[in-house]
Automatic annotation (TrEMBL):
Family, similarity comment: Belongs to the SCO1/2 family.
InterPro entries cross-referenced by the UniProt entry: SCO1/SenC, Thioredoxin-like_sf, Thioredoxin_domain
List of residues binding Cu cation: C89, C93, H180
Glycoprotein among keywords: no
Protein's name in the database: Sco1/SenC family protein
Cystine crosslinks: C89-C93
Keywords per UniProt: Copper, Disulfide bond, Membrane, Metal-binding, Transmembrane, Transmembrane helix
Transmembrane segments: 30-50
Gene Ontology molecular function, alphabetical: metal ion binding
Length: 214
């Protein structure tokens, strides 16, 4: 009787041990499957975010300023406004630069120390480094005028999503016209676009963006 009881007890313990082991194994597999599923979902979410996120615009660039190389990374301020145009532009360029100049007048001295405006001329054939600088200074003595060869200009403005087209125009006194991006880009110290103002039509638009990002 004792032998039967002992055998039954051992058999029962063995069965419980096997059953418990199976339950533990199933539980472990479920946990591993859950972790794998969550990892896959996390990876999928990251890929969706990465492929659909807005592209980062901007970066470092260098052009000619008064006969010398001017590199953004060496001259950047906390906030930088960038406008692309040309010195003989009859309308949108002087309008954007005039509004920008008015906005700069509303800044405190400390704020002006942390902000600058950069004007890039895309008229490589007709605008010299000196003439672009003179043009920019007409609006504000602290505005920076830059230009370069066609290849240098293209390399500088392309990362910002800016573009231009030079066309012959018999109706223009210049004999040509340039269609270009009419947008003030607001850049951080690394040259990355943090804001932009499409076709600015008042100084208030510009001063608001400056103060929001300083």
């Amino acid at each position: 009787m004792m032998l039967r009881l002992t055998f039954y007890t051992l058999a029962n313990r063995t069965e419980n041990s096997i059953t418990g082991g199976m339950k533990t194994s199933i539980k472990t597999q479920l946990i591993r499957s859950l972790v794998a599923a969550l990892t896959a979902l996390g990876l999928l979410a990251f890929l969706l975010w990465y492929t659909q996120r807005p592209p980062t615009l901007g970066g470092d660039f260098k052009l000619n300023h008064n006969g010398k190389t001017w590199q953004f990374s060496e001259n950047a301020k906390k906030l930088n406004l960038l406008y692309v145009g040309y010195a003989k532009c009859p309308d949108v360029c002087p309008m954007a630069l005039s509004y920008s100049a008015q906005a700069f007048k509303q800044l405190t001295e400390k704020e002006r120390e942390n902000v600058q405006l950069i004007f890039i001329s895309v008229d490589a054939e007709n605008d010299t480094a000196e003439s672009v600088s003179v043009y920019a200074h007409q609006f504000n003595p602290e505005f920076i005028g830059l230009t370069g060869t066609t290849a240098e200009i293209d390399a500088a403005i392309k990362p910002f999503g800016a573009s231009y087209i030079v066309e012959k125009d018999p109706k223009s006194y210049l004999g040509y016209s340039i269609s270009h991006t009419d947008r003030v880009f607001v850049l951080n110290k690394k040259g990355i676009v943090v804001e932009s103002i499409q076709s600015p039509r008042s100084a208030d638009e510009i001063i608001t963006k400056i103060k929001e990002n300083l």
